[in-house]
Design brief:
Shape: globular
Order of helices and strands: HHEEEEHHEHEHE
Radius of gyration: 19 Å
Structural class: alpha+beta
Helix content: 25-40%
Strand content: 25-35%
Number of helices: 6
Length: about 150
């Protein structure tokens, strides 16, 4: 049953009480881990069992300072404030991948196809000249193409 009179039970808007509490919490709480996100990658992942199905995946990634060969990415279904967290992906460098056992390597995937096909991109922010952004994206993809991911 809806908390507010007149509220439709399928209405997913945030009630005013929650908005007030969240605003207050955002002033006094520490969000350091999520503020470390330094990159946004967008991909369309195709289901292996059904190539006609896909899911949009917005990866918000952090470089782990304790382990420079590792990135941790929060994956959301869309890049908007109402996005739902749908997964976490760890990315590792080729040198770290080489240290894994054969069994563990089977659990990781290459990013070569995603990058070369254009299914994995670094979306351009508004206001940044295309030539500048394309250069930055190209350099990032040169690194990502060799990394391995585990979701």
């Amino acid at each position: 049953m809806a908390d507010n009179i007149g509220e439709h039970p399928l209405d997913h808007s945030v009630p005013w009480k929650s908005k007030v509490l969240e605003s207050g919490a955002s002033i006094v709480q520490d969000f350091t881990p999520v503020q470390q996100v330094c990159g946004w990658l967008n991909a369309f992942h195709v289901y292996a069992s059904d190539p006609k199905r896909f899911v949009e995946s917005n990866h918000y990634c952090t470089h782990l300072s304790a382990v420079p060969d590792v990135r941790q990415c929060l994956i959301y279904d869309k890049p908007t404030k109402d996005a739902r967290l749908i997964g976490v992906e760890y990315m590792i460098s080729p040198s770290l991948f080489e240290t894994l056992s054969e069994e563990e390597r089977k659990l990781w995937h290459s990013h070569v196809f995603e990058v070369k096909s254009g299914m994995l991109i670094m979306p351009a922010p508004s206001g940044v000249p295309d030539v500048l952004w394309e250069t930055a994206e190209t350099e990032e993809m040169k690194e990502i193409i060799g990394w391995y991911g585990k979701t």
